[in-house]
UniProtKB/TrEMBL annotation:
<dbReference type="InterPro" id="IPR029479">
    <property type="entry name" value="Nitroreductase"/>
</dbReference>
<keyword id="KW-0285">Flavoprotein</keyword>
<feature type="domain" description="Nitroreductase">
    <location>
        <begin position="6"/>
        <end position="163"/>
    </location>
</feature>
<dbReference type="InterPro" id="IPR000415">
    <property type="entry name" value="Nitroreductase-like"/>
</dbReference>
<dbReference type="Pfam" id="PF00881">
    <property type="entry name" value="Nitroreductase"/>
</dbReference>
<keyword id="KW-0560">Oxidoreductase</keyword>
<dbReference type="InterPro" id="IPR052530">
    <property type="entry name" value="NAD(P)H_nitroreductase"/>
</dbReference>
<keyword id="KW-0288">FMN</keyword>
<protein>
    <recommendedName>
        <fullName>Putative NAD(P)H nitroreductase</fullName>
        <ecNumber>1.-.-.-</ecNumber>
    </recommendedName>
</protein>
<comment type="similarity">
    <text>Belongs to the nitroreductase family.</text>
</comment>
<keyword id="KW-0520">NAD</keyword>
<dbReference type="InterPro" id="IPR026021">
    <property type="entry name" value="YdjA-like"/>
</dbReference>
<keyword id="KW-0521">NADP</keyword>
């Protein structure tokens, strides 16, 4: 049931991943789920770059170096984490958004559509037993130095994926009644 799947979706972080590889066919299925997200005026703004193997290591090194270059008071543990996390993942998907060239809709709607595509990926991963996590470090603004991006394209973060042997805790939410006002 989709409601149970939604309730069971969790952030599973790279430190929790094991070494089990993710099959290309599974990544393609996850990306196909993303492609069916709602999109106003059918702009389909989501764009993805899949990183596996050596490209993950290169990403970690790139992020760490950018952090050290741009942070006035860099912390060694953070620079190390930026190097290590990409290597722990079974795959990383760079989440990008391509702005409609004629700007037929507000930019926030295209960001929202891309976020819905990521939610579709997240739910698909949950169903497939793959842990996942959307990381959106400030360093994404430098991604055009790592891979070629089109005019009007922006990187919104990284979707880390990996299998985990850890027990994933149940989610907790405050009651919906605290967040809803019924209008007559």
């Amino acid at each position: 049931m989709i409601f149970d799947l939604i309730k069971n979706r969790r952030s599973v972080f790279p430190a929790q991943y094991n070494d089990k590889p993710i099959a290309k066919a599974d990544i393609e299925k996850i990306l196909e789920a993303a492609n069916w997200a709602p999109t106003h005026k059918k702009t389909e703004p989501w764009r993805f770059r899949v990183l596996q193997g050596e490209s993950q290591e290169k990403l970690g090194l790139f992020l760490s170096l950018k952090y050290l270059e741009n942070e006035p008071n860099p912390k060694e543990f953070k620079a190390k984490k930026l190097i290590e996390n990409p290597k722990r993942a079974g795959a990383i998907i760079a989440i990008c958004m391509q702005r409609d060239p004629v700007q037929s809709i507000p930019e926030w709607e295209e960001v929202a559509a891309t976020a819905m595509a990521v939610q579709n990926m997240w739910l698909c991963c949950t169903e497939m037993g793959i842990g996942s996590y959307w990381s959106s470090p400030g360093l994404v603004k430098h991604m055009n130095d790592f891979f070629e991006m089109n005019d009007g394209e922006a990187c919104l973060g990284f979707f880390y994926m990996g299998y985990s042997d850890e027990e994933i805790p149940e989610g907790v939410r405050t009651p919906i009644e605290d967040k809803v006002v019924w209008m007559d």
